[in-house]
């Protein structure tokens, strides 16, 4: 059967409890599902169901009162549905996702994509560039894996190669690119390549040695004050928090670590973001989805505050 998902909702809840809208016009931030897992290799697949599980667990979401951050007060935010994905047509899906996010950017909204596998970061940034966004962006990339392979299984566009393509296509400035939490890779070559390009790499051990404040300081030093994209693969978190993901790994970062780090990045000019690799079939309890929604909310706060600051300064 040709399964096609186009801008529709199958949950009564919007992502992060946002209102639902059929399109991005008039929004400051458009939250969108990206039910794409055609960039995944191996047997652990099913990230296309991630956006709907995130919506389901958004129904229980309540913003933390500790920080006083109020993204829905600062900005007009809505869930605009899912990017178009045809599981029988890889090329059409690739084009459709980029075009979907080009429409979001052309409407003047900042995107927050909920995946879906990690291929989608490249496609979101392509869409933003297609709509006229000034590139290259800075990049804050949380992940257990560098995702800078050149090719996997004959494919040059997949969940493990997207960040190499993003640098090669001029979407990301490698000198303003920082990886956080790296601890697993298929080959050391992909990490060597990234470092040769100028990418800053904080391994899992580096994060442990630096501590939360040290990681915050290093991120700020690298990305500076220019527009920056933030991509969060949930396997950056320790496996205890994210069993429902493609490639979980024991590691340093807890959900609490991430909350503190994200709150320490206030003022960074985040112009787009995604949270990827939620795989519901591997964690039907929803614990991984709860972690995903918590991380996504912290990122939404950064997006909203950056957007409000930009509007205030013209």
Assigned CATH class: Alpha Beta
Largest sheet: 9 strands, parallel
Give the distance, in angstroms, between the N- and C-terminal Cα atoms. 49 Å
What oligomeric state do the depicted chains represent?
single chain
Q: Which segments are poorly predicted (pLDDT under 50) over 5 or more consecutive residues?
A: 1-7
Number of domains: 1
CATH architecture: 3-Layer(aba) Sandwich
Overall outline: globular
Largest beta sheet: strand ordering: 2-4-3-6-11-10-7-8-9
Helical coverage, percent range: 25-40%
Structural class: alpha/beta
Number of helices: 9
Order of helices and strands: EEEHHEEHEHEHEHEHEHEH
CATH level-3 fold name: Arginase, Chain A
The value of Rg in angstroms is: 17 Å
Hey, roughly how much beta strand do the residues contain? Answer: 15-25%
* Mean pLDDT across residues: 93
CATH superfamily: Ureohydrolase domain
**Beta-strand segment tally:** 11
What would your notes on this structure say?
- With 314 residues, the chain is α/β, with parallel strands linked by helices.
- The chain has one domain: Arginase, Chain A (3-Layer(aba) Sandwich).
- It has helices at 50-58, 71-74, 90-106, 120-130, 162-168, 188-197, 204-223, 255-263, 287-312; strands spanning 4-5, 19-20, 29-34, 77-82, 85-86, 110-115, 137-142, 172-182, 200-203, 228-233, 270-276.
- Strands 2-4-3-6-11-10-7-8-9 form a nine-stranded parallel β-sheet, sandwiched between helices. A two-stranded antiparallel ribbon has the order 1-5.
